[in-house]
## 1
Amino acid sequence: MSDYWSTLDIDLHLPVHSGAGRRNGLEHALREAIRDGRLGAGTRLPSTRTLAAELGLSRGTVSAAYDQLIAEGHLVAQQGSGTRVADTVSTPTTTVQSPKPAVALRHNLRPGTPDLSRFPVSAWLRASRQALGRAPSDAFGYGDPRGRIELRSALVEYLGRTRGVLAIPDRIVITTGVQQALSLLGTVQAASSTPVMAMEDPYIRQFHEAVKATGPTVVTLPVDDDGARVELLTTHAFDGVGAAVVTPSHQFPIGSTLSPSRRKDLAAWARAGHLVIEDDYDGEFRYDRQPVGAIQGLAPDHVVYLGSASKTLGPGLRLGWMVLPPRLVGPATDAKRLADNHSETLGQLTLAEMITSHAYDRHIRSCRLRYRRRRDLLADRLKPRAGRPLTGFALSGISAGLHALIRLEPAGLTEAEVLSRATAYGLAIDGLSGMFIAPEKHARQGIVVGFGSPTDAAYPPALDALVRTLSST
């Protein structure tokens, strides 16, 4: 293609063996170039002979394309002056503003993701080969909205053994993650006689929005160092609430674990005719003792258990699950069918193979040791040392999970000051106050630090930036 057409970046995509296809391709390319301004009003086009030679087309094909665009008003042809783009064609005049250059953030301690560089590629490939080799032909067609029986059966054993969840395959629905599970349950709850749901505050804002978008009224349930304040569910302020979304094992972002007395009260509230939706947020990662069992095991007919592979493997897999009370299996399955028919199959089969071969357990054990070392290094680096004053904050929520909370004390730096200093040091972190859904009621100041996402090489420099950010000098 000649320099003339290269500078206009016109991609013809002309079929090789079709004259009509070539003409249509040329017409389309010229039409689009005129519409988006690459060929402006008054621009003179090459003669039909010249263009035909440049493009390797017959002159008749080019003439036919020109004639069609003249008929449409895109081109005009005058004897002696050639073919030009019509003056009536408008050229886009919108000025594109160049974005302001963003500050380069070299270090990432934002919460919410694991170390993706540690995805078990080799184990996943082995499991995938094994699973695909045994997969029946119907695995590649439309299937059960609840998901593949192989994965649902594997989850029954795994969740019972590791989380104390009571389940059978028929009561499990595979989802694309916890967010979709909450959306499906919001749809079900909106159609019930009690379309009001309580959700922890603070919590993942996107999850709040996903539930609200499906119809239920959402009220906020405050959280303290003992977890969700479940005693409030029996007060007048929560009359009409039919379901509560809680994270008993490791609350995000406060980091607290629901106390034994509150676990008992929450199970009692559920058995009294309400629904508890248990988001087992990074529940596999507990460092100072065995993981706390799921609330679902205390009231399996009144609790929905939610889990996913997002923190153990990676959110890109889009694999999650719901363990449902019997009465919700039908409605939740119908909601899933209407949402996307069913989750993708190949990942389900591979994860099922990893679970049954215990490769999943081995991966989690390896991750738990690695993240515990990172947690310990974080705690050590934030201890005050001679010549490095680190005061005005307290570290909490570090017994489990992939994040920690730095509580800011009134006498020290404010949250806004810490975030500003972090940006200056190229550090990405999140403020606690922005995670509250009802900040006028519950908001507190702090910094939420995720120690899961950096690679092993990137983690120490990120901690250096954090120490500089929090230092009072």
Note: The radius of gyration is 30 Å.
## 2
Amino acid sequence: MLRDRQITIFDTTLRDGEQTPGVSLTPQQKIDIAYQLDKLGVDIIEAGFPIASEGDRESVRSIAAAGLPSTMVCGLARVLSKDIDTCIDVGVDMVHTFVSTSDIQRIHTIKKSREEVLDMAVNAVDQIKDSGIKCMFSAMDATRTDLDYLIQIFKAVEDAKCDIINVPDTVGVMAPSGMYNLIKNINDEINIPIDTHCHNDFGLAVANSLMAVEAGASQAQVTINGLGERAGNADLAETVMSLQSIYGARTNINTEYIVETARLVERYTGIAIPAHTPVVGENAFAHESGIHTHGVLEKSDTFEPGIMTPEMVGHTRRIVLGKHAGKHAIRKSLESANLEPTDEQLNLIIERVKEIADKGKKMTDADLYAIAFAVMGKPQGKPVIDLKEVSVMTGNITTPTAVVKAIVDGEERVASDVGIGPVDAALNAVYEISGKHTGIKIHDFRIEAVTGGSDAVAEVIIGVQDERGRMVTARAANADIVLASVEALVTSINMLLQT
């Protein structure tokens, strides 16, 4: 089967991923993502579609010239000489050329006969190979293409010395069993490596990619966070971790950077990662149920896969406080803050936690500690950071800049910083004034509720983490979202520094 088989990972975040509706990356962001993908260990980066625009052409050129130490750079081209010449001109290591092969696309889009499409495919491969670089050929809409014709065209490009063929499920209509059978049939006829590119229209992109590999494919095309046209592509994190942890296959992915990479792409694209997303979501290793948290705190793989841990992907296990939280979890959370209530006090703390949760409120660590301090009759202590003033300058011709004044350990400090928006600038300024010297970093930022109207009140929850992996979350609500964000961050830092 797949145990110990080496599977190549082809990432198309910068090409198909950028085709996600509403996503547009700057040249610098593309370079940043390319470096991150190289750090992650991706084998091939599809850097873009150079013929599409001058911007895309220069971005691909820059990535190809970046000298990424472990990653091959690929450019996309139709089976047209001008597309291929442009890819070659920008210096890519591989050209990925494609043409529609299904009757529905061939007849209604490119309006070519089967014979014409076959000739165009072979000519494109010849042109690429004559240039001395690698070639991948895609039969676009392969899963809706007549099988005999599909194999005929794959054999023709193989004879033309194509290096690898790609089998795309372009509109995401394949069932996993069907994908297995298709790849097996192709693999029985073709001697060069097979790649697969699966779309997620029915939520089956990862399953179809895994079935393709089971049937003999040696390469999978993926994107970070499953980005891409319509419902997106096969997600890198889910595909890689399934291959490695469930199947026992090998990849070159440095899995400890998976979450870091997902969050970088989330920040640059503005497409938020849903909390329940496998592997990288905020709740991927979070537990609230009393039974679950008790088990996980005793032995993590009682209610986690075991073959995939949060540490493996650069994530952190979280115990979430709420109406389902048990005594064991709440005691552990309090002990981490050096709070040791009696059994009677603990029962009262749990009762108050559940009362708040029953009202639909999400509990933060700061909420829990405040309840515990009140029940135990303990003073909360003087905050390490006493916020005094926040000011922000922004506009259409001004880089958002924030200035924060605070008393830190009894000393007045002022810090300023910039950001991609006023909130980002303000949080960076707080981080400047406190986080850098304490090793504290923001790991979570969420706007939980916004009331209606022009005077809407925003509720912000922010989580921070220190060098030892300890995490604390806090909330704040304010009509000024910048101030709410700063207050939540300062509260969470104070709670962490005080415990």
Note: The CA atoms of residues 119 and 275 lie 48 Å apart.
## 3
Amino acid sequence: MMGLRDRGIEIKTPDQIDAMRVAGLLVGSTLELLRSSVRAGVTTGELDAIADDAIRSGGGTPSFLGYHGFSGSICASVNDEVVHGIPGDRALVEGDVISIDCGAIVNGWHGDAAVTVPVGEVSAAAVKLMQVTEESMWRGIAAARLGGRVTDISHAIEQYVRSAGEFGILEDYVGHGIGSEMHQPPNVPNYGRPGRGPRIVEGLALAVEPMITLGRPDTEVLEDDWTVVTIDGSLSAHSENTFTMTPRGAWVLTALDGGEQRLKELGVPFGGR
């Protein structure tokens, strides 16, 4: 049975993790469809419609639509918009970068992931920002061990980002537990000392999502009460995957291959079924 321990943390059975994998695959395939749909001239609202159709056609329900009143099936955040951008009539232009955050519910279980995608040719600084952000996410996941602590992930993310150059790491927005709800305990910060926070145990599922900027990490929320932007106007990127630990290793539930390729490249065991 699913149990609750360590301040409300939800521990899933293997069958429940398998159900989360179904939701995760739907999120992963939807994000790949959206990645291929990004181009100059497309609106964030058009991307939202593509996502909504893909999620529903796949037997899921968008996690975000109606969440605390949110009006989109994805979050679409462009350039200095870090997260929680509301899709609408904004048309993408060459040189933009767009963070697309996608969540789906299948049979009561959630998947949550995000990618940042260039629109045509973008600056070298933007390319590096996206690469560092995505790689830091993978480094964080690769640092997780059964019996370890949640901030082992946080420390690995920060360590990689700091080693890669002068970037800002958002501190007010963090990763999270996930399962029968989209946002659950524990928080997964993208910075901090290792060896702290709840233990990583079998059946715990976490969404790891570094949010990195080319400038300072300070942000504000726009008048729409959702869109988070950098105060200094600097470019930002966001990468996210949902993963769990099995006795064999990490299993990235929202990656189409379960994260097998990237985990093996980082020298850690793949735990997928």
Note: DSSP finds five helices and 17 strands in the chain.
